[in-house]
Amino acid sequence: MSRLRNHPFLMPFQLEWGCVRQRCLLTRNRLWIIRLSEFRKSAGYHGTVLPISHRSMPSLTDIRFAELAQTIACDVHSKTQDDDNILKVQEISRAFVSDTITVPTKEMNAYALRASLGDDVYHEPSTALLEAHIAKITGKEAGLFLPTGTMSNQVALRTHLQQPPYSVITDARAHIYRMEAGGAAFHSGANSIPIIPANEHHVTWEDIEPRIVSGTDVHVAPTRIIALENTLNGTIIPQDDVIEISKNARSRGIIMHLDGARIWHVAAETGLSMKELCDPFESVSLCLSKGLGAPIGTVLVGSTPFITKARWFRKLFGGGMRQTGYMAGCAAYALTHNFPMLPRVHALAKRMQQGLEQLGVDILSPAETCMLFYDPSPIGVEYWEVVERASQLPDPIKLNGSRLLMHIQTSPQAIEDFLELLRTLKEEKAAAGWKPENAPPKKKTLFRDVYVKAVRPV
């Protein structure tokens, strides 16, 4: 080996190829690969040297190659990565901003790392099993794994909408309408018809029927899809209303799609099966990275022809992924171990609402599942004050504004600390002379947006 290393025209370096560690020797004209086990036979080398044609590769000196390798090498770990991760988990347990911030546990990672190693654009066994399982429990023929809920919704719309002009009816507060960057118009060329529910809770057939566009008038875009969202802002659409909307829509040849990003919460709260909840719809998008706590992924379900076409659009949208087995493994673990935790999450949200109401804080949208929206103005407090003071606690709490969202990694102590902070702020305002009659009058508007961001006045 020493004779080879000192040869003037040989440059040794090591590569890891599969499970076989090999020594590579680069000459001026040819790359040679020598199995390391052969070097151990004797001081003189008697192993097999495997030549590989090197005509198309430029000649490299050992210094030049080392420089090249050094520029390409990457390390994404900080010097204190393990400690950083411990602190991050603590931060997540005290953050009420979203349920997308949950992180895989060691147990989830251990299970997921044993998943298959296929390529999902061709065939990935673990991912195919996940798709089939979710299709089965929702009563659909087939499923498709996608990276995000937004892509899942948009692929579903694009697959259903075959010949413009057309329109899509949604709740005015729906994710498809408000939070997907105008995707229905951009990807599908669809007009959106947002509906404000008369009951201020959920849309009903009475809300929808007058807004349906039909006929052959060339000035309009006929309604082809009604897209519901359940839960919406954490609230549940009564199943009787869903069934009524679906029955009337189908009688008119209108397709039903469900953005079921948090449909798992509906099942956990109502006891209805996933099939019962999904039967009124031709297609359903089910997120795995929100309430269930997987790191990534959504499964779109529907008929076999629908999913076959949706797979094509997934590729067109740039959503075809490769080694998704790990992701499917995380999702499977979440379905098995995290879904049973959702009732606990709902109990935490209800505890939060109870505590706020006892303090005299307004509830803009109640805690029917995992979230609520609150208004601290009746106790003289503004959102920005809450956010700033929460960030200054010995164990900080992270907030954005009016939405308070509980998840499977939320600490019960964080809720009690938040309520104590509100109590302190209320007492400080009262000591400074603030009285309930000083609260600003409530403005009555046609559409009440419960999402309020905390913005400090300039």
From the structure above, extract its key features:
seven-stranded mixed beta sheet; four-stranded antiparallel beta sheet; 14 strands; 458 residues; alpha/beta; 18 helices; single chain
Counting H and I runs of at least 4 residues, what is the number of helices?
18
Overall number of strands: 14
Structural class: alpha/beta
How much of the polypeptide forms β-strand, as a percent range? 15-25%
Morphology: globular
What level of helicity do the residues show? 25-40%
Biggest sheet: strands side by side, in what order? 5-11-10-9-8-6-7
- From the N-terminal CA to the C-terminal CA, the straight-line distance is 72 Å
Mean pLDDT rating: 90
What is the makeup of the main sheet?
7 strands, mixed
Low-pLDDT parts are 1-5, 7-43
Radius of gyration based on Cα positions: 29 Å
